[in-house]
Write a structure and sequence with these properties.
alpha/beta
């Protein structure tokens, strides 16, 4: 990997999405959970396992935003994705989250996320919402209306 200085959140997100896609998962960016918070990347595995990735592009980005703690209860696994030169010592330990580092292309999981299995009803709710939001986004994109590609993500919880 090369020097990750100045990687944008968009490049980190794209690289991490490719990592999960390459392993047979489905991904959706900017997914709103019931609390109204938007997860940077929501991943659905082939066995209906749910992973949330919170992207942090700088120390300031991490220290100014503590909403990530609300995501843990909405996933089986929770990861931070950061550039390889990010100060990882400020991130929570392995009992709370996993860590993925990237140079904007290649990614490495340097700390596995602990597994905390979701309740069946919450999993069903999330999988249904993921399908609903993904289908709406695809249809809006097919309608050639990019302003509405993320419209109404929060419809009917």
């Amino acid at each position: 990997m090369t020097n990750g200085a100045s990687l944008t959140a968009a490049r980190i997100t794209a690289a991490v999405a490719r990592l999960f896609l390459d392993h047979g998962n489905a991904c959706i960016r900017e997914f709103t959970v019931r609390t109204g918070r938007r997860a940077d990347l929501m991943v659905l595995g082939p066995k209906r396992d749910i992973t949330i990735i919170e992207v942090k592009s700088s120390r300031q980005d991490f220290t100014s935003d503590q909403k990530w703690q609300e995501y843990i209860e909405w996933a089986d696994r929770f990861y931070f994705a950061v550039a390889e030169d990010f100060p990882r010592d400020i991130l929570p330990g392995p009992d709370i989250c996993g860590i993925i580092i990237t140079d904007g292309f290649d990614c490495h999981i340097v700390q596995e996320a602990p597994v905390s299995k979701l309740a069946g009803t919450r999993r069903t709710h999330l999988v249904t919402r993921l399908a609903h939001v993904a289908m709406r986004r695809l249809e809006w994109a097919a309608q050639d209306n990019p302003d509405n590609a993320k419209a109404d993500d929060r419809a009917e919880e």
